[in-house]
């Protein structure tokens, strides 16, 4: 008798899981359909682009450094 109860309970448990899975799937389908029907608002226009030069700074030739530079101890 206990075997019959266990099998019957397992069937009810599986049916409950199947019903829950069907409910979750229906909710996901409804949310997907809603998302496809409702388009997001358009984005504002982008600002004008501006160019930034990324070239390295020019280096003075050797021997033309300012007096009192760090190379001679700041004198």
Describe the 3D structure.
By secondary structure, the chain is mainly alpha-helical. It has a domain at 1-38. The chain is 48% helix and 0% strand. It contains 1 helix and no strands. It has one helix at 2-37. The chain starts with a helix and ends in a 38-residue tail after the last helix. The relative contact order is 0.05. Mean pLDDT is 80; it is low at 1-5. Residues 55-75 are annotated as: Disordered.
Tell the overall outline. elongated
Percent of residues in helical segments? Answer: 40-55%
Q: How would you characterize the largest beta sheet?
A: none
Using only CA atoms, what is the Rg? 38 Å
Strand content: under 5%
Structure summary, number of beta strands = 0
Number of helices: 1
Query: Averaging pLDDT over every residue, what do you get?
Result: 80
The string of secondary-structure elements, in order, is H
Secondary structure class reads mainly alpha
Segments where pLDDT lies below 50 for 5+ residues?
1-5
Distance from N terminus to C terminus (CA atoms, Å) equals 105 Å
């Amino acid at each position: 008798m206990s075997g019959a109860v266990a099998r019957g309970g397992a069937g009810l448990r599986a049916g409950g899981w199947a019903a829950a899975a069907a409910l979750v799937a229906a909710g996901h389908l409804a949310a997907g359909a809603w998302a496809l029907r409702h388009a997001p608002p358009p984005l504002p226009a982008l600002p004008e682009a501006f160019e930034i030069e990324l070239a390295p700074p020019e280096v003075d030739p050797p021997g033309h450094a300012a007096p009192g530079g760090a190379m001679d101890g700041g004198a």
